[in-house]
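User: quick one - fold this with S-adenosylmethionine bound?
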Amino acid sequence: MREHRESGAGSGKGRPDAPGRKDKRMPGGADRTGSKRVRAAAAPRANGRDGAVRIADAAADELRPGDRIVVTIKRIGINGEGVGYYKRKAVFVPGALPGEVVKAAVTGVEPNRLTARIAEIEKRSSHRVKPVCPVYDRCGGCQLQHMDYAGQLAAKEELVREAFARYAGLEGAELPLRPIIGMDEPWRYRNKAQLQAGHKPGGGLALGLYEPGSRRLVDIAGCAVQHPAVSAAAERIRRLAERAGVPVGAGPDGALRTVVLRVAPESGELQLTLVASAEQFPGRDRLVEAIRRELPQIISISVNVNRGSSPLVFGERTRLLWGKPDLETRLGDLRFKLSPRAFFQLNPEQTVKLYDLAREAAALTGRETVVDAYCGTGTIALWLAPHAREVRGIETIREAVDDAERNARLNGRTNARFYVGRAEELLPRWVKQGFRPDVIVVDPPRTGCDAALLRTVADVKPARFVYVSCNPATLAKDCRVLLDAGYRIEWVQPVDMFPQTSHVESVTLLVR
Ligand SMILES: C[S@@+](CC[C@H](N)C(=O)[O-])C[C@H]1O[C@@H](n2cnc3c(N)ncnc32)[C@H](O)[C@@H]1O
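Assistant: Sure. Structure tokens for the protein plus S-adenosylmethionine:
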């Protein structure tokens, strides 16, 4: 059997990887070059144990699905796949780990990358472990359970390092990267679950997540990253809904679509939101009655109406059915009241570390004016407010601003104000009016900061710019803009907010 090697042996001496070579291939898979490799490809794939092995040597852009290549995995990609190279083209291999050598079957050939699945692991990583969760390979919620936690932390640090090298041009000692902050117990940290309601294959009601790219529901009753109070309540609600005869899906007469549960870890109290295609649906009141009787830890039950076909969980209308309108929870010294749709960080233990880092970076003395752009429900602003003269939060979602104002009152903060609008519009307007913040904190969505916001920062030149980010690539790109505008990176601190997944959060301090 011949396989394609990423370099060296079998790299195809005398087989130019010249552009245009691919063009010689005819539709339907034939190739006018008549090379042995291609003939082998066109022949029935019966020479491998799984009957799908094409064995020859090829330039990266001549590979086809089913071809086997041998790849050394160099790092973890942003979606948790192993990334290696085949003749200088990136190969994404789900499930493969850094340091492993895998024989992989090509599944996709794109202009800039290949995708492949593991056929055999030739050299195993010492970080490879058996995933804890029985539905790990189907659920899609976690991407790194097959790697031990030390390996995950190292891989995430590398993701940040790689992003800064690629997008900000900072390599090695040029990047003041601190060691990632992980969790002592990297399980059961999620304070909220959004579970789709559907049918089990053999009948009965299921609550779970859809398999990525499919409509098959994976029952995740014993989710290993979910707070146990949420998992236990979800299973009881599933049974009670079944007993109450609640229809599931998006039926015209009303049916349960999604069950949203959020826990306040310090009290164990739970907030339940039943997302349904109509406010009233068969069995709803029986279900609410049963939950009140059997699950006293649920202190708030609402229905949210979502008739839409988009993947958004919530619709516009929410009505309280029973109990308190909000769930009260704490972060550090602060209290927060969360309405059913309010955004709140999912890992409270790590959130405290993240916000403490933002406070460290802001280095407040009590005299500063601070902007918390992309402020959500105002949590960072409220974390900083006791140490600043004034904090202004900016957020596009009206309800989030209402929550932020309410939480400011709840915590007796009179120096934090919140504004509905786009950060890239409001901040320049304030600056025109003479406003000069000493510190700007941003915590944008994955797409990063708007260019207009970065231009304003470059003009206003706050002494400290604190960038909280959930996406190393956009973080590094935005930092490049600020480096070119005269800022310098003091430190970058990755924080593992989502163990077992490939996500990595970080706080970066830029100064001038
Ligand atoms: C990553 S969340 C920040 C959450 C918050 N800092 C926290 O820790 O809970 C990003 C927030 O930015 C808001 N947002 C998105 N685009 C925005 C814009 N152009 N201007 C202001 N806020 C925006 C989103 O609605 C979202 O609440």
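One thing worth noting: Residues 7-53 have pLDDT under 50 and may be disordered.
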